[in-house]
Amino acid sequence: MRSNLSFADLLGIIWYNVGRVFQKILVANRGEIAVRVIRALREMSIRSVAVFSEVDRRGLHVQMADEAVCIGAGPSSESYLNIQRILSAARATEAQAIHPGYGFLSENAAFAKACEDAGVKFIGPRWQAIEQMGSKTAARKLAIEVGAPVVPGTEQGIRDYAEARKTAAGIGYPVLLKAAAGGGGKGMRRVDKESELEAALRGAASEAERAFGSGEVYLEKFIERPRHIEVQVLGDEQGHLIHLGERECSIQRRHQKVVEESPSPLVLAKPELREQIGQAALQIARAVSYSNAGTLEFLADQEGHFYFLEMNTRLQVEHPVTEWVTGLDLVHWQIRIAAGESLSIQQSDVRWKGSALECRVYAEDPGNNYFPSPGEITYYAEPSGPGVRVDGGVYTSWTVPIEYDPLLAKLTVWAGDRDTAIARMRRALSEYRVLGITTNLALFDAIMSDPEFIAGRLHTGFLDDLKQRFSPQALAQDEAVASILAAASMQSSTPAIPSNGAPAESIWRSIGRRGLLR
Q: Which residues are catalytic?
């Protein structure tokens, strides 16, 4: 029997039913991602609860939420990383679920389990899946078991120098040492010859211990001029799992993403690659009965051979580009899945249209070794117009704090093809205005104007090469671009553990404070 209900009526019923499960959701994060989730909750007629530290009292996410609870002082250990204070806020406001965003506690298995024990729904995967995929070595071993391709290397942490020496000799130099418990370039060292290995191993283990509380590192073959490609997956709690295609994240500085896009230019050149890498991602995700949103990261060489790296068991910073090209709202789906709804989308239903780009806008100075730029924003104006989206968390008169990551906003654009998307991004960048602090907006203009980027010839060392491609004449004519590109490949020193044994404060906070005191 055919239903007389319209699509809008059906959608309303779905959202009403979700609302019956979740009348109120607490957002355990800050900044642009908290704003992003709160907007989704408002669209779904679900009340939102913001949590904030003392320094975020005037935060945009606090102003936008239906309710807000202060959970402690500025340091994240006393606020956004304090599990008991967040759960207390959920109990006090009678929130039925918690959305962790990304960063902070989003990939913390203990937090997800604490939510479960407290009877509060964690909007993300099961804590067991987070725990299993949280170790890169365990994830790598799982990938090998299910037959997914991995970069040649160790299947577990390196025990000592003798093992590292033997493994490196077996797979051939150059090799890469990587922290097993984290990412972001911490605990990572490239080793080009055996004489460098012992010192690199000590340095990588020490840095990993400081950054993640674990000095375990593993070793893998270094792939020359690799591309960083990741696959978005989405699964319900009934066992249905699909992939939403790839994002290319090869434009990086210090192993941290700067520009992301979908589809990957490599996939545009080799369309069969999407299905191959998508199926590899699903193989791994199915092995841990994964549900909700997640991302599997791969390295690919220039010929299209790809290798599994790790899984991020959360919503990614760069999720808007996938939303642009698929037309799907990932945060809506996260909430609907957590409410027990089955995926109504089959793999054959997923369609990719056009091209999307994202630039991460930071309060930092690329021309001065990415020196942080905390302080008051005296004027702020976002670009707009056709195909432009800004996920932001700041405003005019907001003071960028020194306690947290300096991400201000994510500028994303969409167009029918990649060339038009690049032109649209350049137009949007020309409209972006942030005064009172320094940002990295000029760096993006240099990237978007580069012939190699326009041609889609990308790799993780792109910014280093970009610096070399500028002629002395061009550099002399544009001193600002020269300084930005010169800084793009510079490495900053990692702060040491203080002599009293207390954890070292972040680079962002320490040098930001020095900048304010000048």
A: 314
